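[agent] plan:
  1. take the single chain provided in the ticket
  2. run structure prediction with default settings
  3. attach structure tokens to the ticket
  4. add a short note for the reviewer (M.T.)
[agent] executing step 1
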Amino acid sequence: MAGYKTGSNNLEATNVIRSNANAKEGEGPASYSSDNKLVFITRNNFVDGTRHISSSGMKLDLFVAEADADGSWKNEEPFQWNGSDFSTGFAHYAADGTLYFSSDRPGGRGGFDIYMSYKTKNGWSTPEILDTININTPGDEITPYFEGRNLYFASTWHNGYGGYDIFTAEKTTYVGLYLAILG
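[agent] step 2 finished; step 3 output follows
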């Protein structure tokens, strides 16, 4: 099941997102562009039908596809910044055209960190770590979602209740980001 926000700010159940989903490949979180023409899918990284598990565990890849009005996906392509030695996934394509995603790629602050990339005429810009006032930590930050002035994400590191807690950070023009736990 999927949910979406209506004009009254309620979440309502929708129909099945995609009838031709490939459960064999372990598809996970999906995010649609605001015009519903692009979809970003997190998937276990299978190659030739074999799930690749490195010494640090199973890896995830991000895929981009065009979404038709009937819900089908076409022209599916791997995100050009996936890698065989790290995971990339949990994407959110914000209304301003910024792709936010989580990755445990080298160069981060710890486990999974939140990155940004922008659509260009040649694909996607080089991922930039979201390096703003302690969002990314030595722990894991996943499932970024940006709406208006608020970034929502889950973290195992920030002072919370344990495990993946949900946080929001409000972007302000004068002092950066304020971090608050939601639960």
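[agent] step 4 note for reviewer: The chain has a mean pLDDT of 79.
[agent] ticket updated
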